[in-house]
Design a protein that fits this description.
Strands 3-2-1-4-5-6-7-8 form an eight-stranded mixed beta sheet. By secondary structure, it is of the alpha/beta class. The model has no long low-confidence stretch (mean pLDDT 95). The protein folds into two domains: 6-164, Rossmann fold; 175-268, ProC C-terminal domain-like (ProC C-terminal domain-like fold), CATH 1.10.3730. The chain has helices at 13-24, 39-49, 57-61, 73-90, 103-110, 142-152, 166-175, 177-194, 199-219, 224-230, 237-247, 250-273; strands spanning 6-9, 32-35, 52-54, 66-69, 93-96, 116-120, 130-136, 156-160.
């Protein structure tokens, strides 16, 4: 990866997190080109990271080994139709981090087949703690898969799926998942305040508890079920609280929520990708 030239189409938050992670991993800023329409954003990117910044997308992809598509899904069609001739001629590895756009739509807008990897990162990538699922088209060579994985590993862990349809499940679980966790944090903090804790203390107790539980789960060889059982003393406070969750249908509610998110992901792909 150290010798690859990477062009970013779009210089928003997710692109910025990837740029920061790649530079932290030792990639020279001179090998990163960012196309960004906003002049103030270009100036900030150049000053913050020392990367090459341009306004023209076609100029950005000239000589690029990798092109990262980091624009909003709603403008992707126009971007790719303009870039199509350049991408078809040079055939760089194309990585899309745009949510909800399937590979068939991306290739249709490009106007032909190119090595394409579709990714579903989540927002903790902004603090280099994300998880990204990747799907590769058959045209993607093994070395290109490794390159795509190396780029996305700059902002967290990665995993591959063999069926693009599974990215809807990924979107529902990890893509939307941070919002589920934030909702739980909101509820826990509010519950603490109702029991008399000051807001700042309830917030700190909530955040550190969620962080610590996630850290324990990541570092343990046991699954969440075993960890839950270990901290649930018979007849104790935790058992009483968990009984209320179970009586309220907590598991089924979570399953229904994630299924609804997956269904919406499929709907959005149909809407954004067109016929």
């Amino acid at each position: 990866m150290q010798q690859a030239t990477i062009a970013f189409i779009g210089g928003g938050n997710m692109a910025t997190s990837l740029i920061g992670g790649l530079i932290a991993d030792g990639l020279s800023p001179a090998r990163l080109v960012v196309s960004e329409p906003r002049a103030e954003r270009r100036a900030w990117l150049a000053e913050r990271f020392g990367v090459v910044v341009v306004e023209d997308n076609r100029r950005a992809v000239e000589g690029a080994d990798v092109v990262v598509l980091a624009v909003k899904p709603q403008v992707m069609q126009g971007v790719l139709e303009a870039l199509g001739p350049s991408l078809r001629a040079a055939r760089p590895l194309v990585i899309s981090i745009a949510a909800g756009l399937r590979t068939d739509a991306l290739l249709r807008w490009i106007g032909g087949s190119v090595p394409l990897v579709r990714c579903m990162p989540n927002t903790p990538a902004l603090v280099q703690s994300g998880v990204t699922a990747l799907y590769a088209m058959p045209e993607v060579a093994a070395a290109q898969r490794d390159l795509a994985e190396s780029i996305l590993r700059a902002v967290g862990i990665t995993l591959w799926v063999d069926d693009e349809r599974l990215l809807d499940a990924v979107t529902a679980l990890s893509g939307s998942g941070p919002a589920y966790c934030f909702l739980l944090m909101e509820a826990l903090q509010a519950a603490g305040e109702r029991l008399g804790l000051p807001a700042d203390q309830a917030r700190l107790l909530t955040l550190q508890t969620v962080f610590g539980a996630a850290k324990m789960a990541l570092e343990s060889a046991e699954g969440p079920e075993s960890l839950r059982v270990r901290v649930t003393s018979p007849g104790g406070t935790t058992e009483r609280a968990l009984a209320v969750f179970e009586a309220g249908g907590f598991r089924e509610l979570v399953a229904r929520a994630v299924a609804a998110a997956a269904e919406r992901s499929r709907e959005l792909a149909d809407e954004l990708g067109g016929p």
